[in-house]
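Journal club prep — side note

Before the paper discussion, L.F. wants everyone to see what a predicted structure for a comparable chain looks like in token form. Sequence:
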Amino acid sequence: MKKILLFCLFCFEVSLNAQSFNMAFDSYSRQDTLNAEVVFTGHITNVASQNISIFFVRKVNDLPANWNSSFCFDNCFPPSLDSIATTTDFLSTPLTPNETREFSVHVSPAITMGTAKIRVLVGNLRNLADTMSFNFQVTSIPTGVNDKNVVSNFNLEQNYPNPFNPSTHIVFNLDKPSFVNLSVYNLAGQKVCTVVNKHLTSGSYNINYNAEGLSSGVYLYRLSVDGKTFSRKMMLEK
């Protein structure tokens, strides 16, 4: 019902000149291999003199088959949810003056090569003329093609299954013997588990990770090899 009400409320688009808030993202176009998670991270700041309630609506979700996209803001939400807001319905609160919070768009390329196009409308719930629109594009690339997200001497795959309860598999590859640290962190940056911390020979590793003692939520698993670090998100649903 919350999803339907928000969608009906914001089914039209208005001015694209925001005055009560500022927002920008780290990037708007990315490339990555299949089964990786691509994250566009943005920061929204209340520049008004009073509290403001913000909405986020996915207006375009043009994805290749078996891909999905989702939002994170204060909490992470399932791909089926097209709209969220800074209200108690979404376990959130309005932004206070000068407050900045993080909002992210997550895209998971899977199985089918192609390009995803996503458009997100962000606005002030009390002033529908106060909006901004953002366009994102993700293009899949073959495994082994190097870009800024594919590290040349090791590779960390997306865990599977994901979401999971309570066990999941974490796969990584080493092209040479290295000292490896694989750890899990919560979104506050606190380490909750060290999974691997030892010297390994080259090859492919499939680690079965059990999160029995953790509560439901989104976690980061981080692989460090030879001074380089790569991380991905995973969701525990109990």
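L.F.'s comment for the group: The domain at 154-236 is CATH 2.60.40.1930 (Immunoglobulin-like). Keep this in mind when we get to the figures.
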